[in-house]
Specification:
The chain has 2 domains: about 20-225, no CATH class; about 240-365, Rossmann fold, CATH 3.40.50. The protein is built from 11 helices and 15 strands. The chain has helices spanning about 5-20, 40-45, 65-70, 155-165, 165-170, 185-195, 230-235, 265-275, 285-295, 330-340, 355-365; strands at about 35, 50-55, 85-90, 90-95, 100, 105-110, 135-145, 175-180, 200, 210-215, 250-255, 280, 300-305, 320-325, 345-350. The strands form 3 sheets. Strands 2, 3, 4, 5, 7, 8, 9 and 10 form an 8-stranded mixed sheet that branches. Strand 14, helix 10 (about 330-340) and strand 15 form a beta-alpha-beta unit. Helix 8 (about 265-275) runs parallel beside helix 11. The longest helix is centred in the first third of the chain and has 15 residues, at about 5-20. About 40% of the residues are buried.
Length: about 375
């Protein structure tokens, strides 16, 4: 058995302290999380002003042999999942995820996808939910697009977990400004500009914020699952950037860097190039170009990863091939394909017949070398 390093020992102790700090009394900036509350239940009971847009969405598909079945994460379900907004004047938004706390330091469950405690310190700054500074006050009405999974650093989570909350914002009784997640890659700035919201947004000015009027806009689904309300809103919101069906070449969405790039990526790309697929590195092109490329593609193939989020823009009937490594299978993109009625198939690498299987798929969809 390996002996833990000093760093591992210190981190373990900090995790324990972070989890159990609530047993100590609050004092000054020492303000750990002390439980949780449901904003949805508070709205229903009349303790908070708010409105329920949707109590539950339909359950998605889970065919036998699908990635959804193989992953075993119930990504077609997680219902009922209420979609709603709630208004309060005493919310503090704390840490990188802008967690909503009430005056008793209880965490809003819906804002953290019903997670009752912090599971990983890397989800936020170290001790950010224990040592809390005096809040910076913001005048007027505000919403936040940040939450667990939605810190802004991932294209999939930004679109599906963050931006879709703007669907809820459309139902609010007054105009609001928008707090963005603190991490803002180019795709965050680009999509905000594409929606014409540049003048409405602001990066968090501090690690603890108290808006004069805070409107909590719930996520439209659990992260990574069937989400008809969110998918439909995104398609409508970015509709002017969509290309005509099959107006462009088939595309292969590759990965550059990261932990899930297969060792034989060059061989895989060569197969698709031989069949006329354009190799697209989504990390190197603007969002508008990604949308045009994916929406106009005659077929879409790619490695499992955030670039496959662009299946959102594919038109019904377009063939799709998602390629996985055997060590990790996740059905979030299959669920997008089901919603868009794409002709989705998957391939898990390592069968010994990778080249022949991919070659056969290209031929089956009518792509000739």
């Amino acid at each position: 058995m390996s002996i833990p390093t000093l760093k591992q020992v210190v981190l373990f102790g900090l995790k324990k302290f972070d989890r159990h700090a609530c047993i100590f009394p609050r004092c000054g900036s020492f303000a750990p999380i002390r439980g949780s509350f449901s904003a949805f239940e508070a709205v229903q009971a009349g303790r908070l002003e708010g409105c329920v847009l949707c109590h539950s969405q339909p359950i998605g598909e889970c065919p036998h042999g699908s990635v959804t079945e193989l992953a075993g994460m119930q990504q077609h379900d997680h219902q009922p999942w209420p979609v709603f907004w709630a208004r309060t004047s005493d919310a503090r938004l704390v840490g990188r995820m802008l967690h909503w706390r009430d005056p008793g330091d209880r965490l809003c469950l819906e804002g953290v996808f019903h997670i009752c405690e912090r599971r990983r310190l890397r989800e936020d700054r170290l001790l950010a939910q224990v040592w809390v500074s005096k809040p910076v006050m913001l005048e007027g009405a505000w919403i936040s697009l940040a939450s667990n999974w939605g810190c802004g650093g991932n294209y999939f989570h930004w679109l599906l977990d963050c931006l879709t909350r703007l669907r809820v914002r459309e139902s609010l009784p007054e105009p609001t400004r928008i707090l963005l997640p603190p991490i803002q890659p180019n795709f965050v700035k680009e999509t905000i500009a594409m929606l014409g919201l540049e003048e409405q947004v602001m990066a968090p000015p501090a690690s603890c914020i108290q808006p004069e009027r805070y409107y909590f806009c719930s996520p439209t689904s659990m992260t990574g699952v069937w989400n008809p309300m969110g998918y439909s809103w995104l398609r409508q919101a970015f509709s002017r950037f969509l290309a005509s069906p099959r107006s462009g070449p088939p595309i292969f969405l590759t990965r550059r860097g990261g932990s899930r790039v297969p060792a034989n990526i060059a061989e895989i790309e060569a197969i698709f190039t031989r069949y006329g697929f354009q190799i697209v590195d989504c990390g190197a092109i603007p969002v508008a170009e990604q949308i045009r490329s994916a929406s106009g593609a005659a077929a879409i193939a790619g490695l499992h990863g955030a670039a496959m989020t662009n299946l959102l823009w594919g038109h019904a009937g377009v063939p799709v091939m998602e390629i996985f490594q055997s060590s990790y299978v996740n059905a979030c993109y299959e669920q997008i394909a089901f919603h868009g009625k794409l002709r989705y198939q998957h391939h898990i690498l390592g069968t010994g017949r990778d080249a022949s299987s991919l070659d056969r798929w290209c031929k089956s969809i009518g792509q000739e070398p």
